[in-house]
Write a structure and sequence with these properties.
The chain is α+β, with helices and mostly antiparallel strands. It has one domain. The strands form 3 sheets. Strands 5, 7, 8, 9, 10, 11 and 12 form a 7-stranded mixed sheet that branches. It has a 3-stranded antiparallel sheet with strand order 1-4-6. It has a two-stranded antiparallel sheet with strand order 2-3. A hairpin with a 5-residue loop joins strand 2 and strand 3.
Length: about 240
C-alpha cells in the first residue's frame, strides 16, 4: 500500500513537472515571438476590452479595478468617453471612490449613473460581448441597454440585517432589457427562459456576463431578480 502510494506520488510529480515544463515552453515561445497567443490570454495582461475575454478575464478585471490609473487608460484605449467623478462618502459603507460616468459607451444606456472604474470597464467589455450575442442569435445589433441603477445606499436585497450591497459603492448594475436596432425590446421579465430567439439571446447574454463579472444573478436565482440581471464586481464570485 505504501509502495503504491509512493509510486502514485512520483507519477503525479512527473506529470506536474511535465505540465509546468510545457507551460514554461509556451511562455518562452510567446515572449520570443515564435507563437502568437490571443489577446487577453494571460492573467497578468492588461485587458483589451475590444477583444473577446479569455479564461482569466476575472483575474484581469480584479487587477484593473485595483489600479484606477490603468483602468482609465484601458477605457480610453477602448474608445470609451468618460468623466471622472469626485469621491463620495455618505453613511457608513456607502459612497464611491475612483468612479466615472460613461459619457460615450459602446452601447447607450437609458440613463447616466456613476460606476466604479472597474465596473465601467467590465460593462464596456460586456457590451462588446452582448452585441456579438445579439448578432448571432437575432441577426440584429443592440442599440440601448435598459438599466435600473448602479448606486444605491442599501444592504443586500434591501434587508435591514444584511451586509452592504455592491450597489452601495456603485460597483453593480441591474439590467432589465435590451433595445435592438429594429426597435424590438428584449425584456428579462418577459423573455428570459422562453423558447424564442429573444429567450436564447438572453441566455447568451447571461452566459457572457458570467465570463466577465464576478457576480451575476438573474431570474433563476430568486424572485427578487425576476425582472433583471444583477451584475457586480465584488469580492465573491457566483453565476446564477
Amino acid at each position: 500500500m505504501g509502495s503504491r502510494g509512493n509510486a502514485l506520488s512520483l507519477e503525479g510529480i512527473a506529470w506536474l513537472t511535465l505540465v509546468v515544463a510545457m507551460i514554461a515552453g509556451v511562455l518562452v515561445a510567446w515572449r520570443e515571438g515564435w507563437i502568437a497567443l490571443p489577446r487577453n490570454a494571460l492573467p497578468w495582461q492588461t485587458p483589451d476590452l475590444t477583444q473577446p475575454p479569455g479564461w482569466f478575464a476575472h483575474l484581469q478585471m480584479d487587477r484593473l479595478a485595483a489600479d484606477p490609473e490603468a483602468c482609465r487608460a484601458v477605457l480610453a484605449k477602448a474608445g470609451v468617453g468618460y468623466t471622472s467623478i469626485p469621491d463620495r462618502r455618505t453613511t457608513p459603507g456607502c459612497g464611491y471612490t475612483d468612479a466615472v460616468f460613461l459619457d460615450k459607451p459602446l452601447i447607450a444606456f437609458n440613463r447616466r449613473t456613476p460606476a466604479t472604474c472597474g465596473m465601467a470597464a467590465a460593462l464596456t467589455w460586456y457590451e462588446h460581448e452582448v452585441d456579438a450575442v445579439a448578432e448571432q442569435s437575432l441577426g440584429r445589433r443592440v442599440v440601448r441597454i435598459t438599466q435600473l441603477g448602479t448606486y444605491a445606499c442599501r444592504n443586500v436585497n434591501a434587508a435591514a440585517d444584511r451586509a452592504r450591497s455592491e450597489h452601495a459603492t456603485a460597483n453593480a448594475m441591474d439590467i432589465a432589457g435590451f433595445v435592438l436596432d429594429d426597435g424590438r425590446v428584449v425584456s428579462v421579465a418577459r423573455d428570459f427562459n422562453m423558447a424564442t430567439p429573444e429567450g436564447r439571446f438572453l441566455a447568451g447574454a447571461h452566459a457572457a456576463a458570467c465570463r466577465i463579472f464576478n457576480v451575476v444573478l438573474g431570474p433563476d436565482f430568486n424572485t427578487l431578480h425576476a425582472d433583471h440581471f444583477h451584475l457586480d464586481q465584488g469580492r465573491y464570485r457566483t453565476c446564477r
